[in-house]
Amino acid sequence: MLDKDPVFKYGDWRIMAKTKMSGAKAVIESLYKENVEVIFGYPGGQVLPLYDALYDADIRHILVRHEQAAAHAADGYARATGKAGVCLATSGPGATNLVTGIATAYMDSIPVIAITGQVPRPLIGNDAFQEANITGITLPITKHNYLVQESGDIPRIFKEAFYIAQTGRPGPVLIDIPKDTQTEIIEFEYPEEIKLRGYKPTYVGNEQQIKKAASLILKAEKPIFYVGGGVIFSNATEELRAIAETIMASVTTTLMGMGAFPSAHPLSVGMLGMHGTRYANYAIQESDLIIAVGVRFDDRVTGKISAFAPNAKIIHIDIDPAEIGKNVRVDVPIVGDAKNVLKTLLKYVKPEHAKTETWNKKITAWKKEYPLSYKKDKLLRPQFVVEQISEVCPDAIIVTEVGQNQMWAAQFFNYKNPRTFISSGGLGTMGYGFPAAMGAKVGKPESTVIDIAGDGSFQMNSQELATVVQNDIPVIVAILNNGFLGMVRQWQELFFSRRYSETCLEGSVDFVKLAEAYGALGLRATKKSEVKDVIEEAVKSGCPTIIDFVVEREENVSPMVPAGAAINEILDLE
Amino acid sequence: MKHTLAVLVENKPGVLTRVAGLFSRRGFNIESLAVGVTENPDTSRITIVVSGDDRVLEQVMKQLNKLIDVIRVSDLPAGESVNRELALIKVGVDSSTRAEVMQIVDVFRAKIVDVGIKSLVVEATGDESKINAMEQLLRQFGIKEMVRTGKVAMNRGAKAVQVEKR
To answer: Looking at A487, A490, A492, A560, which residue is catalytic?
Structure first.
């Protein structure tokens, strides 16, 4: 059937209306219309026609070594560039291997398009070879999903999928394409308009509500901004900075919000929550007004919810109405796009209104008294490694794995710009960092991309070394190697009397040799004096590199709010 | 506290799964659910009775609204809406009890839709309390089988739940 396709060039402007082509080619053409430059994928039986169409298409395909990595790479690409990332897998196991990656993207509101092959329509429901009901499986972890039932629907479904993924509160959308719809000939016409009766995101905030918010801000003596990923997704960082400087209010960010406000800005109080700074947590607890922007009052942020910010009124700005009032009571809800709302809000506040001088002095005093710190001795401590990375590569995109490495990366790197901190915040997916770094590097080839990793997390997707070498994607993996599943070990130390049940990773692979086995560069540092040199060497090499930092084994992430405590009941750990 | 929601959805395969899946995932309780097509064949209407306080209701409505295939969600307040359920009840009878059963059916303005030697099938419509009361009375004769549709509801007066609002 395929060889009877009419001849045309992909992306040809002449392909406008009603050109005949196979379903598979219609998929490629739809991706063209959406300006997709790269796909992360893995072939298989039910996507053979799609891969055949890809063969001479002008889209870069990056062959991963496990479908999970394809989903994470698409996610990392999306976070670094702001454009939807695309991943592709076959039916059954290929599709189910995407699931963790899709769930990760869903929890952090990342626009990912996951394309899966499905068994031919007549076989659906028959428990055919490599059949899995992937639309059913991903129902609770996608913003929306589609099973292509008519090949003619492919252009419309792609148009809708990209629109849904990238608008409103972004999120992953899955498109499941039965093999027989890939080979049928259809008349390709990419729709200009989208007709979705049930989907109309609100971008502009209600003016009355914004005025109400402004009047609360004018009255506040102890205001604080609490901002998250929503600020980054709506490109609202400039507006945030402008308004914070106008009313002279401090800004604390969530993990997802790192980079939304410069870490070194005098009004920045860093991250809040379980491993946030003391001063951010104190400021939140004592504030009389919280201006929450693009956040969801997650339990890692609020601690004991009934004790959260007892004296504060709350203004909550979010594009998703369902987030407002979900976890805390809100005084002024504003549904809308953060950028739009902050812009409007800025009209109603003036610098002369700021009454925050006393409050800011107090915060500054807290900052002096309780800085983030670690023991500065001769030993190689992981925090030192992160600080050195920050010094040597101040403009790098930092990607993290999950656990202690993630928290140290958040605490000790000096973030200046949005989209430079990429981490699995909501789902907390170990193994996320390396493939996501790969996606980020593909999207931002001019940036240095560093995965700050743990030895545990890295080994969950280390097979992707083959991918970065084959496709020449020079990411740097900085392993803070402590031979433990560090965060779990930390909890065992604190709450289970140091009974280190199954958290010791002694006997792990030699990471330098592992890198070399794949044809990547392997470096190691065991002393403080070696750290800077190996980072510089890695950057200079221009190759995919693993640096094995052999760090103090039982270092803890500090400070820490124990689970279930109020966020000002924060402990320093040695 | 029970709330009745009218949910307009795309009349497409899989939509009911999305709605039901949302309830189970978010831990909301469905008391009853009835679904059918509306005056517009592209649109179906689901009537859901959900229990929970006002906060739960708010979350249910907001989460439902987030589903792409959900077009509109309305809360139908008890006093301001017409609520109906339909029940089919198979009652065991003999020559001595048949007349009495028929009398009860008459009082409730229900209908007998099938007559057998040993049984009657009663069709009853009404609000939940009426169906419950009738069930109670028929129980003494022996209910062999019963099926209820779940509640459907509509605003009183000119106010209507339609796709286009505002």
So the answer is: A487
In a domain, A557, yes or no: no
> Which of the listed residues A369, A395, A420 is the one where a domain comes to its end?
A369
pLDDT in tens, A200-240: 999 999 999 999 999 999 999 999 999 999 999 999 999 99
E-state strands within A331-448 = 332-335, 397-400, 421-422
Mutate to test the interface with A, among B16, B68, B161 (most CBs of A within 10 A): B68
Residue A419 and residue A351 share a domain: no
The domain total for chain A is 3
Of B21, B58, B163, the CB nearest to A140: B21
Same domain flag for A363 and A398:
no
Give me the sheet containing A38-41, strands edge to edge. Answer: A60-63, A38-41, A85-89, A112-118, A173-178, A144-147
Among this protein's residues, is A238 annotated catalytic?
A: no
Q: Which of A324, A341, A369 is the last residue of a domain?
A: A369
Contact indicator for B118, B94 with CB cutoff of 8 Å: yes
Stretch among A476-485, A497-506, A509-518, B26-35 having the lowest mean pLDDT? B26-35
Q: Is A179 annotated as catalytic?
A: yes
DSSP H or E segment with residue A113: strand A112-118
- Are the beta carbons of B14 and A135 separated by less than 8 Å? yes
Sheet with B29-37, edge to edge strand ranges:
B29-37, B43-51, B2-10, B70-76
The model's pTM is 0.94
Smallest Cβ distance to A198: which of B21, B63, B69? B69
Q: B62 and A322: CB-CB below 8 Å? A: yes
Please name the member of A144, A198, A320 whose beta carbon is closest to the beta carbon of B71.
A198
Looking at the complex, report in whole angstroms how far the Cα of residue B155 sits from the nearest Cα belonging to chain A. Answer: 21
Our answer to whether residue A274 is catalytic in this structure is: no
Give φ, ψ of A24 to 5 degrees. -60, -45
Residue A161 and residue A257 in one domain:
no
Tell me, yes or no, whether A12 lies in a domain. Answer: no
pLDDT, averaged across chain A: 95
User: pLDDT tens, A14-51?
Assistant: 555 678 999 999 999 999 999 999 999 999 999 999 99
Range of the domain at A276: 207-369
The enclosing domain of A502 has a CATH number of: 3.40.50.970
